Amino acid sequence: RRRERAARAAGPGRTADGHPVKLLVNLGGLGELPDAAAADSEGVGLFRTEFLFLDRTEAPGREEQTAAYREVFTAFAGRRVVVRTLDAGADKPLPFATAADEQNPALGVRGLRTAARDPHLLETQLAAVAEAADGSGAEVWVMAPMVSLPREAAEFAGRVRAHGLPVAGSMVEVPAAALRAGALARACDFLSVGTNDLAQYAFAADRTLGSLAELLDPWQPALLELVGTAAREGARHGRPVGVCGEAAADPLLAPVLAGLGVTSLSAAPGRLGEVRASLAARTLDDCRRLAGLALGAPDAASARAAVLEALG
Ligand code: PEP
Ligand code: MG
């Protein structure tokens, strides 16, 4: 416990003038838990639960899920853990959750869409999360991947709350969700922008194709504009809007995201130190100015160059 406290000595993330930007870790499995828990963070911003479901012929049962989630919640007692419900499909096909015969799985029944096909999978997972959260000491939030419509966000939030879990959110990974983030925000408690998928869908560029890296660059002004729209619309409805995709791990991009109105950044534990230092070196006004420069650029390389130049 003393080690934990010492590791968190730097306190919450903030800009030079004290504007808070929560710094959280991404967690993709129990093997990553020791490093994630020891990191100087306010909790987990993206707990990817797929690790429990991959490489199996059927879904894990409720008890097995409860045990795994409890390990995570206990390790983060006193901190927040944002659990993302199963994100099956596209680059994560699962024989028991997704159809093998889709022509375009990235555009198919994936993420939250699988819950309409098989409501039992989501129900079991939410029951396990609720049971594991109970008495763990962690502040457990739950969010859905691949939300496209406000109705989906509202239905998901209803299901989450029916399990006694008080905070339900939607990921923003589809351009339609970013453009209509206000309606999404009204339908749930928080938003979290997944820039990996948002870039893929905004640029019609397969995120697994290295040859399309330029289009998938998180500095693309069009992507940043979608992030800014989500942040602004979330703020208008009093909802926090975080970023949990790869964009959040880039220290130079952190002030830009803060300037766009993003309220938390979630990244691999090893990246948080630099992200924290970068935020702490700039005021919120600096961040807004940098965001304006990035948005005004014609492409990712120019956006990065403009921000670098402004920082001297
Ligand atoms: C994302 O799409 O940005 C995201 C955080 O989710 P994943 O990378 O797991 O699809
Ligand atoms: Mg995603």
TrEMBL record:
Catalytic activities: L-histidyl-[protein] + phosphoenolpyruvate = N(pros)-phospho-L-histidyl-[protein] + pyruvate
Localization: Cytoplasm
EC number per UniProt: 2.7.3.9
Record keywords, A-Z: Cytoplasm, Kinase, Magnesium, Metal-binding, Phosphotransferase system, Sugar transport, Transferase, Transport
Major subcellular location class: cytoplasm
Cofactor: Mg(2+)
Superkingdom assignment: Bacteria
Ranges for domain PEP-utilising enzyme C-terminal: 10-281
GO MF term set: phosphoenolpyruvate-protein phosphotransferase activity
Keyword field contains Metal-binding: yes
UniProt family annotation: Belongs to the PEP-utilizing enzyme family.
Described purpose of this protein according to its UniProt entry: General (non sugar-specific) component of the phosphoenolpyruvate-dependent sugar phosphotransferase system (sugar PTS). This major carbohydrate active-transport system catalyzes the phosphorylation of incoming sugar substrates concomitantly with their translocation across the cell membrane. Enzyme I transfers the phosphoryl group from phosphoenolpyruvate (PEP) to the phosphoryl carrier protein (HPr).
Record's protein name: Phosphoenolpyruvate-protein phosphotransferase
